[in-house]
Specification:
It is built from eight helices and seven strands, in the order βαβαβαβαβαβαααβ. By secondary structure, the chain is an alpha/beta fold. It has a seven-stranded parallel sheet, sandwiched between helices. It is globular, with a radius of gyration of 18 Å.
């Protein structure tokens, strides 16, 4: 089903909850048609239904970002459905708590496949589609405050997020000649189900309550509050919109003042 309009098309991975859901709803509010990608179809279908009920155009797609062929298929499906493709937000990720002595080959490989592999496959699929369509586009990757400084107990997660900053810089240089920009966003401590799980794991490892676990991450926020998913979505909206057209290769911190550089 092709619907040709002037509204641009954005695809968001990991759009079934948390930051990804907030990004999808913010881009809808900014006038985008949105393709929502997630491993669990029911989750992205719920978000799509809410956006469509609000007068938007949202399309849910099931895909596992660790699988290259599924990412390419999702981009193809979104393009066929909407008739164009302009922005990809490589947001999907996992965040295992891994004190260095607990890292296993399985945890390392699975996290790399999703967090880093998913971004690389998303960049490949999006850039190929932009070139096929004969126009530029925007690629936006999820890094983290934990990709700017080392966070205890997050060896594997932090490694993937540092790597995403490097991939963002490298591919920004490679793709600039095609009018394709590549940038990243680096959230801090965001109130999401995934963040709650991380804090609980850290607390359990230390034999402390959940509140203690969350405090280990939030105690150094200059603005004195945890981030809402909508705070991060606002940063992504800037990267997806025309005001950032002259920006590429950058990783923007949106952490309430945790890292200063």
């Amino acid at each position: 089903m092709i619907k040709m309009t002037d509204k641009k098309v954005a695809l968001i991975t990991g759009a079934g909850q948390g930051i990804g859901e907030a990004i999808a709803k913010r881009l809808h509010n900014d006038g985008f048609r949105v393709a929502l990608v997630g491993r669990t179809l029911a989750k992205v279908e719920r978000v799509a239904k809410e956006i469509n009920a609000d007068g938007g155009e949202a399309f849910a797609i099931a895909a596992d970002v660790s699988k290259r062929e599924e990412v390419f298929a999702a981009v193809d499906e979104a393009t066929k459905h909407f008739g164009d493709f302009n922005v990809i937000v490589n947001n999907a990720g996992v965040a295992p708590t891994t004190p260095i002595d607990t890292v296993t080959p399985e945890i390392l490989n699975d996290t790399l496949a999703i967090n880093l592999g998913g971004v690389i496959w998303g960049i490949q699929a999006a850039s190929a589609k932009f070139k096929e369509l004969g126009h530029g586009g925007k690629i936006i990757n999820a890094s983290s405050q934990a990709g700017q400084v080392g966070n205890p107990n997050l060896t594997v997660y932090g490694a993937t997020k540092f790597a995403i900053r490097g991939v963002t810089q490298t591919t920004a240089k490679e793709l600039a000649e095609f009018n394709i920009t590549v940038n990243a966003y680096c959230p801090g401590i965001v109130k999401t189900p995934m963040m709650n799980d991380i804090a609980q794991q850290v607390a359990d490892n230390a034999g402390k309550p959940f509140e203690w676990g969350m405090e280990q991450f939030s105690k150094d926020i200059a603005l004195g509050r945890l981030s809402e998913p909508e705070d991060v979505a606002a940063c992504v909206a800037y990267l997806a919109g025309p005001d950032s057209d002259y920006m590429t290769g950058q990783s923007l911190l949106i952490d309430g003042g945790m890292v200063f550089s």
